[in-house]
């Protein structure tokens, strides 16, 4: 199964783009209707993203949602700020110290509570997705933009390589744990092999050596990472309203990979524990011979083992 094939999605395990705990915290305040309580909650998400949700006792009708996205200041001018203005312009306010964005949500003036709750839960996804939207929109409108890279997290760098007919998105992937490296290498090879069975999906490659697109960044040899995963996004992959789906999938690819590595390790341990249980049952059923018991020969004589 392949990430970008919509028809294959029901058979896959994809992570939710939003933060469910954040959604529940916001929902509890939006639906309280006059019975709101003071809230001061800090949450942590994938990719080192953190949130701070505050409902102050001086004004329980105002919810402040602060978000810290480590690479935000780097990609702010490449779609990040545009995404904030596009999706959260009505809630913008002074940013809390130590955070990149603070949304001021007037709880008594929400026109569509369900849509607002969902939108706030997707704040990380929408803002980070602004980088991809910046390059994909330029591709669809035949605009020329410069190459760009940013560190999604400490062990993953994303390279955006625009061309006239495509945008190649390259993930520089690495893992600190040796076992994770082995599993990831096997999974990504199978991931690429699955592409052959799905013709409509974007071309992808996985290799320990950097692809040719990274020559523009001065990278020609592997400098210590596990490898490079490349996705070539064409105009046909973004047409007919598919751009948002592609963006959501691409930006969560690293988390998707990490999740399935953990699931694979859990499966391995489960199988090993099951095997050990079966071996213990066999040992418990085994009979230990009594070496002191009298034995008889074919002639009827008895003897004891020494």
How would you describe what is shown here?
Helix 3 packs across helix 5 and helix 5 crosses helix 8 (243-251). A 5-stranded antiparallel β-sheet has the order 5-6-7-9-8. It has a 4-stranded antiparallel β-sheet with strand order 1-2-3-4, with helices on one face. Strands 10-11 form a two-stranded antiparallel sheet. Helices cover 37% and strands 20% of the residues. The protein has 9 helices and 11 strands. It has 306 residues and is an alpha+beta fold. It starts with 19 loop residues before the first helix and ends with a strand.
Largest sheet: 5 strands, antiparallel
Q: Count up the helices.
A: 9
User: What's the N-to-C terminus distance?
Assistant: 66 Å
Low-confidence stretches: 1-12
What is the succession of H and E elements? HEEEHHEHHEEEHEEHHHEE
Q: Radius of gyration, rounded?
A: 28 Å
Structural class: alpha+beta
Mean pLDDT: 87
Shape: flat
**Sequence of strands across the biggest β-sheet:** 5-6-7-9-8
Helix percent band? 25-40%
Count every beta strand, where a strand is a DSSP E run of 2 or more residues: 11
**Strand coverage percent:** 15-25%
